[in-house]
Every structure is written in C-alpha cells, then in structure tokens.
Amino acid sequence: MEKLLQLGNDVAKLWETYGTTYLYGMRDTLILALVATVIGCIIGLVCGVLNTIPCERTDPPAKRFVLGLVRALVRIYVEVFRGTPMVLQAVFMYYGLPYFTDNAIKFNNVWAAAILVVSVNTGAYMAESVRGGIISVDPGQTEGAKAIGMNHVQTMLYVILPQALRNILPQIGNNFIINVKDTSIMFIISFTEFFAVHRAVVGATYLYFPSAVIEMGGYLLMTLTASFLLRWLERKMDGPENFDLAAADPLVPGEGMHRYKKNPKEPNADYRRKEQEDSADLAAKAAQNRNAGKGARE
Predict the structure, then answer these.
(1) Residues 115, 35: contact at Cβ < 8 Å?
(2) 3-state DSSP assignment of residue 94
(3) What integer pLDDT is reported at residue 252 of this predicted model?
C-alpha cells in the first residue's frame, strides 16, 4: 500500500509539472495517426482497386502488359512495407535519402517525414484489406450492374466500393488504433509525440515507472475513445433498425408497405397486423381451392 501511495504521489507530481507537455504529445500523436490513416487508406484504396481490375486472355496485349506491370509494382510495395519494421522504414526515409543523394533530397520538416512513413506503411496493409473487401462482395452484384449497362468504373464507384468500404471499416479502425501506438517509434527521427515526451520527462526526473503509468493511461484513453467512436460509426453506416418492406406490388405506391422491426421480441403493430392479414388471405384461398375441387368432382 505504501508503494502505491508513493506511486500516486509521483504521478501527481509529474502531471502537475509536465501535464501540459503530456497533453501536447497526445495531441501530436492523434493528429499524426489520423492524417496518416486517411492518406494510407487512400493509398490502399488505389492499390486495391488496381489489383482487382479484370484482365482476360482476350484483352489487348498492351492492356495485359500494363496491368501485369502495375500489379507487380503493387505487390513489391506491399511485401516490402509489410515485411519490414516501421522503425527501419523511418530510418531509411529520413536518414537514407540524404545519405544516397548527398543531401540533395532531405526532409526539412519532421512532420512531413513522420506522416510519409506512417502513411506508406498503413497503405501497404490497407491495400490487401481493400482487395479482400472488394472480393468479398457477391459477384452477382457485378453481374447485375453490367446487366443494366454499367461499365467497370461505374460498377466500382456505385455498387462494389460502398459495400467493400463497409466491410473493411473495422480494419480501418484497427489500423488507426495501431497507428496511435506505432507513432511511438517516430522518436527515432526526432518527432515529438507522446512517447518522446515520456522519454524527455524521464531524462529530466529519472522517474521512469511513474511516467510510464501516465503513458499507459494516455494510450488507453486514446485507443478506447477511438474504439467507441468507430463502433458508433459502424452502427450509423448500418442504417436504422426499422425499415419498410414491400409485401405486395412494389409498383403501386404504398401498396403492401408495412414497418419492420429487427427486434423480434418487440414486433411492430403494423407487422403483426400484416401477418394476420396474410394468414387470413391464405386461409381464404385454401377454402376457395377446396370448394373449386368439390365442384369439379360433382
């Protein structure tokens, strides 16, 4: 108990002295993670769409060559950035470019370097997520779009991608949460984010564990908040629970329309009434068929 009291006292002292600095670090971490996730999703979307462009043996050789080359480049990009640690990618981009170009190409803004590193890394993971989301959409959707005269671009924009994006939304949220934590390695290029603040505070006070407790609480606060907001967004994208069903001729306005509730324990009044009417109609038709059969036999 004495150690816990001492820990609480040390944490309170650190927060009183460096609380604003910790908050600035959290702010920079969230900004970097959010911007890099958005850019990475755009990169992944482009790569995923390029990987799913249909290519048949009957297509012109030029088209097959270009698509094959693009897919090979995308595959190399995905495998390289998924197969190497982000910390080494940051070192190669921030320190490697000036080394190989004799400082002709270098980053004068550490924000630009950090956003580039995290975005490119996120794009490599999102490329496969987008490809999987597109493949997961029922092929009948594509066939139906072609049947009504849509070309490939229209089919992707209006039919496939909206469904694919809903399918990969949990993965987008997962990548954002990963980026919130993985930005901690950007201290390697002198980017001052949340973990870099922790290192600076420890260097000034030598209170490593109390500062780590603040770091743990801050990261948990950011990731749990992000998870809550992402689940809320998923529910919003799912639409309302109650919707209209067309039980009869859909070409007649209002004909056979009734409200439907997802929760079967609380059936809607209109839904119950419609069930009763349908049951009565079926019973009446069955009686008419029996009477018609009797008349035919007589």
Answers:
(1) yes
(2) helix
(3) 47
Q: Which whole-number Å values give the CA distances from 3 to 9, 10, 70, 205, 218, in the listed order? A: 10, 10, 60, 18, 22
Q: What is the pLDDT of residues 35-53, one digit of tens each?
A: 999 999 999 999 888 888 8
Domain regions of the chain by residue span: 2-239, 245-297
Whether the pLDDT of residue 157 is over 90: the answer is: no
Round to whole Å and give the CA distance between 94 and 188.
9
Residue (of 182, 78, 86, 89) closest to 129 by Cα position: 78
Q: Sorting pLDDT into bands at 50, 70 and 90, what band is 255?
A: very low
Q: From the CB of residue 264, how many other CB atoms can be counted at a distance below 10 Å?
A: 7
Q: How far does CA 109 lie from the centroid of its chain?
A: 28
Class of the CATH-defined domain 2-239: mainly alpha
Residue 197: CA count within 13 A, CB half-sphere: 24
Residues 6+ apart with CB under 8 A from 33: 118, 176, 179, 180, 183
